[in-house]
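Kindly go through the entry underneath: sequence plus fold tokens. Please state briefly how this chain folds according to its tokens.
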Amino acid sequence: MVDGWDETAPGVLRLPSGRLVRGRGLGRPLPAGPRPTYGLYLLGKQPPAVPWRSRWLRWPDFWLPADRIDAVDALREVWMLAGAERVEVACHGGRGRTGTALACIACLDGVPPREAVAFVRAHYDRSAVEMPWQRRYVARFGRR
């Protein structure tokens, strides 16, 4: 097992199960402290390589994942890995796509779909999940 995130560090979201996931914006410098052991990157084009294991999910800015089946698989993988590793989820700004992904991960962790966006806004970023269709995506994701 890897030492986890410091739950008081910026961008770290504690899920009800105790799992910790860091959300961040790739448009900002890498935060100080330990590096992730795994990253899920939500971008419209392939991100640059990083020195840790990572996965790219094609997800255009302000929209939804291009491949919904791949998205479910990637988000489940993040949830599972977060139990034992330092996992981060990131898009360029760290709010819309990242917040949407974190809300879906919260659903996987047991947060009711109707409460997942509010949970992420309260515990990660008050501006998370920017678009109405992203909120609907979270609600539908939670019914899986």
Observations:
- Strands lie at 12-14, 20-25, 38-43, 53-58, 87-91.
- The chain has a mean pLDDT of 93.
- Helices lie at 68-81, 96-108, 113-123, 132-141.
